[in-house]
């Protein structure tokens, strides 16, 4: 449960989903100004905590549905990489899906969404308007990577 202390041996799973369109642009979302943690910042396509008993895949598909109102199918893929932290880990999923902004139904915690190029993402990052993920400079290269080296 959110806010509850983890029992010994329990880990927290967070999923992050990067959705690219057929043009190679990344779908990003802007967090609401009253959102806890990084309010009013641009973020990856969707993200959130897994529910107890959920797999990473299930959590990723659910978060995209909840936040963006679209259905994705991750059954033929796997998370691109996991980043481990003291109390758990973050799984990062990368997919390409042909969609338009008009296909989205934004949840109340999402203020806006748009597609960006690598250059546009760099501008947001340099302006301090994007969550500073450690791999942000490589996000476009990671999309097609078969092995990852940070």
Please summarize what this structure is:
This protein is α+β, with helices and mostly antiparallel strands and 150 residues long. It is built from 3 helices and 7 strands. It has a 4-stranded mixed beta sheet with strand order 4-1-6-5, with helices on one face. A 3-stranded antiparallel beta sheet has the order 3-2-7, covered by helices on one side.
Protein model, in words:
By secondary structure, this protein is of the alpha+beta class. Helices cover 17% and strands 28% of the residues. It contains 3 helices and 7 strands. Strands 4-1-6-5 form a 4-stranded mixed sheet, covered by helices on one side. A 3-stranded antiparallel sheet has the order 3-2-7, with helices on one face. Strand 5 and strand 6 form a beta hairpin. The mean pLDDT is 94.
Helix content: 10-25%
Mean pLDDT score: 94
* Annotation field: number of helices: 3
Biggest sheet: strands, sense, closure? Answer: 4 strands, mixed
How would the blueprint of this fold be written?
Blueprint lengths: L11 E9 L5 E6 L10 E2 L2 E4 L6 H13 L12 E5 L2 E9 L13 E7 L1 H9 L12 H4 L8
Parallel strand pairs: 1-6
Antiparallel strand pairs: 1-4, 2-3, 2-7, 5-6
């Amino acid at each position: 449960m959110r806010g509850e202390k983890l029992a010994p041996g329990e880990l927290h799973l967070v999923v992050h989903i990067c959705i690219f369109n057929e043009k190679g642009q990344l779908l990003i979302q802007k967090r609401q100004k009253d959102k806890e943690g990084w309010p009013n910042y641009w973020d990856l396509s969707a993200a959130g905590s897994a529910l107890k008993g959920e797999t990473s895949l299930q959590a990723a598909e659910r978060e995209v549905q909840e936040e963006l109102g679209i259905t994705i199918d991750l059954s033929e893929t796997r998370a691109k990489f996991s980043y481990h932290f003291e109390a758990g880990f973050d799984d990062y999923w990368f997919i390409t899906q042909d969609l338009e902004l008009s296909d989205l139904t934004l949840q109340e915690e999402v203020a806006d969404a748009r597609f960006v190029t690598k250059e546009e993402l760099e501008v947001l990052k340099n302006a301090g308007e994007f969550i500073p993920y450690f791999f942000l400079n490589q996000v476009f290269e990671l999309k097609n990577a078969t092995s990852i080296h940070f």
